[in-house]
Amino acid sequence: MNIPNPSRRRALLLAGAAAFSFCTAATAQTYPSKPVRVIVAFTAGGTTDILARAVTQKLSEKLGQPFVIDNKPGAGGNIGTEMAVRAAPDGYTLIVNSVGPMAVNQTLYKSLPYDPLKDLVPIVQIADVPNVLVVHPSVPAKTLAQFIEYAKARPGKLSYGSTGVGTSSHLSSYMLGQRSGMDTVHVPYKGANVLNDLLAGRLQFMFATVPSVIQHIRAGKLRALAVSSEGPSRSLPGVPTVAEKGFPGFSAGSWFGFFAPKGTPASVIQLVNKTVNDVLPSLQEQMVREGADPVGGTPEQFGQFAQREHEKWKAIVRDSGASID
User: Which family, according to the similarity comment (predicted)?
Assistant: First the structure.
C-alpha cells in the first residue's frame, strides 16, 4: 500500500478542506436553483397554512424560485412531519411546523417512529400566536374572574371545544380548569370545525388561536376574556393575560417556524434564516392584524426555545392524562 509522506498527506487534507469549502460556498450561491417544497402538516386555511403562505411568498420574491406549499394534514400533524423527516436533506424540502407536532406529540402519542427535535433542524421561528379564551355571547361574563365564578357555580354544565385531544386549545382549557377549580366538559373536534359549534352556542367557551377567531371577536360574535401568552398580544390590545389575572406563569400559546430534515447543508439553513429575518418586518403589520406576533432570530435560539417547549408540554400532557394510540 502506498502511504503518502506527511507533506503529501497535509496537502491532500488541505485540498479536501478547500474542496468542501468550495462546495459549501457553491451551494449557498446556487440555492435555490429549482422550486422548494414547503410542507404544512395541516389543512389549507388554518393558522400554520396562513403564516406559511405569507412568508413563502416573500421568500419566492427574494430568492427567485417558487417556495410551494404542500399541505399534508393528518394525525395531529404527524403525517406531514414524518414526510419532512424522511425527505432528502438537500434544502428542497422544508416544513413550516408548530407547537403540536414539534413539542407536544412526542408525549401525547404512545409511539412515534421519529424524534422531531432530533430528526429536524430548526431554521427560524416565524411567529408566536397566543391562544385567546373566548366565550359565546350567551355567557354573561365580561371578565376572566366573572367567567370562572360563573363556571364554578355550574359544575359540569359548561362545555368547551378544542381542535383535538392534546392540542394547545385542549390543554390550555385543562390548565385553567386545574388551577381555578372549574368543572367543565371537554368536547374534542377534528380541526377547525369546532368554531361552528362555538359560534352557534352549542359550546360555551374555548381557547382558540387568535388568527382563527379575531374576526369573530371584532364582529361581536365571540367575547375575548384573556390571552394565554406571557405578555399582551399586539393583535388584541386591551385584552389581559391569564397570568396577570391571578394565574402567574400561565403560558400556553402556539408558535410556528421553519425546520429542515437533519443533514440539510448549513449554508441553506443560514440563507433561509437570513431571508426570513429580512422579510418579517414587511409582514409585521399584516401578521399583527391577523393575530400573530412576528419573532425571527437565529436557528440556535429557535432550537433552544423548541426544546424548552417540549419539556413544558411533556409535563402538562402527562399530568392531564391525555394519550393517543
Answer: Belongs to the UPF0065 (bug) family.
CA distances from 147 to 140, 172, 181, 222, 246 (A): 8, 15, 12, 14, 13
Are residues 124 and 258 part of one domain? yes
Q: Of 199, 219, 245, which closes a domain? A: 245
Q: Give me Rg for the CA atoms of the chain.
A: 22
User: Above 60 in pLDDT, residue 264?
Assistant: yes
How far is Cα of residue 224 from the mean position of the Cα atoms in its chain? 22
**Spacing of C-alpha 167 from chain mean position:** 11
- Write the DSSP assignment of 236-256 as a string of letters: STTPPBTGGGT-TT----EEE
Evaluate the omega torsion of the peptide bond into residue 32 and state whether it is cis, within 30 degrees of 0: yes
* 294-311 mean pLDDT: 97
Mean confidence (pLDDT) of the chain: 91
> Is 81 within 8 Å of 99 (Cβ atoms)?
no
How far apart are alpha carbons 70 and 31 in whole angstroms? 20
Q: Encode 267-285: b = buried (16+ Cβ within 10 Å), e = exposed.
A: bbbebbbebbeebbeebee
Same domain flag for 301 and 282: yes
Q: Supply the pLDDT for residue 164.
A: 86
Are residues 118 and 156 located together in one domain of the fold? Answer: no
Cell of 13: 487534507
Cell 377534528 locates to 190
Give per-residue pLDDT as tens, 161-194: 998 888 889 999 999 999 999 999 999 997 668 9
288 neighbors 128 (Cβ within 8 angstroms) = no
CA distance 280 to 316: 32
Helix (H) or strand (E) holding 299: helix 299-320
Q: Which residues, 6 or more positions from 61, have their beta carbon under 8 angstroms from its beta carbon?
A: none
Which CATH number fits the domain that encloses residue 85? 3.40.190.150
What's the number of domains the chain is made of? Answer: 2
